[in-house]
Amino acid sequence: MFHVKHKTFIERMFMANSQTIYALSSGSLPSAIAVVRISGSLTKKTLLLLAGKVPKPRKLTLMELKSKNKEIIDVSLVCFFPKTESITGEDLVELHLHGSVAVLDEIYLFLASIKDLRPAEPGEFTRRSLINGKMGLTQVEGLADLIAAETKEQRIQSLRQLNGELSDKYLKWRKDLIETRAKIEALLDFSDEIDVNQNVEILSLERNIYNLIKNIDQDLIIGRAGEKLRSGLKIALIGAPNVGKSSLINILLKEDRAIVSPQAGTTRDIIEARLDLEGVPVTIYDTAGIRKTKNKIEKEGVQRSQKTANTADIIVLIRSAEENIISDKIDFINSEGAKVIKIFNKIDLIKDKRPISLGGLAVSCKTKQGIESLLEALGKETKKLTSFSDRAIGPNRIRHINHLRETKESLEMAIIEIRAHKIEVAADFIRSASVSLGRIIGAVDIEDVLDELFLGFCIGK
Known about the structure:
single chain; 12 strands
């Protein structure tokens, strides 16, 4: 029997799926082609009214689309997918129209005139695919990530998830846990007759649980990299006033985004910009110069700089090559695990090589000397923080990581109970672990995830 909340969810999905939906699935108009998708039980009826017949499945067919008064709206390629072969698990058709506003308006007027045919909501085609078992929850998340992908590495990660690598792995783990629980409960049926063989069986089950914990630990490590790749890294440019932070961000972005001035304290607020660095999305922050000041606005800028540095993944600490002594006045950074790359700018103003011997990269924002070395260092660190290509795909969302941690905690408690000879309690912890894994792949309690997930989808997806 369903939990009341889950039952309401199922009923709501059933009511929504009983209606046929339509939407523009291609880009904005005007365009060369506009693809309109229709999905639901009225798809065939709609095609008969619009085109006079239903074409052969999965074959693009040139057809005249006519209004109710038999005027030709457009001559279009039409592709019909029966529910057994469609992505939504329902009869679906794609109309490949000429992409003019006039054509689309007429098609929409025709579709709106049919009872129980309505415009789709954001992500509703994909939602139906999920509800009808055509896609799993992690695959849907992979699709969302693919749509939002900005870089090559993001595309690779999202495609691997969309292809089911992550869901297949967690489905296997969950199946193993269910089998382990079944074996433990079978042992409980003969608890009064425990013999040597049963003790060996218990030890084997404990070993299996321990091995799964090790696998989860590995996935949690991969997960930190995967989540950073999905959401992007933060790189903060930190330094005293007038050391070249704004000049550097302009060079990295290849545009004049920040104001550059010889007057100290020009940058008062945080300037941020997105950049593709070695296939990894990064946000670079140009911050206000760190110094003691009585100016309230500049003081607020300094505080924001410190906050940005303490949440960054990589900190580029910039000093002037003209400094004779490395000052500690800006060494305030409390960011845990952040990589600090030290650079000395304005190398063109000195003749000796002192900054190199002091343990930093020597650059000149004026002559571009050393910029390639800086980019290489940044690229190397971003790869370290996000690399997963040589390993199996792992979790890449906070909810994945949280459920994995719950799974691990339950399994650790199960081992404790097994060693205390409380087999029945251990079985209950294993059940909890399988539920947590099930939440990742959408086997249980998915309602809370869906609304937030589909909010980011376009109407026709």
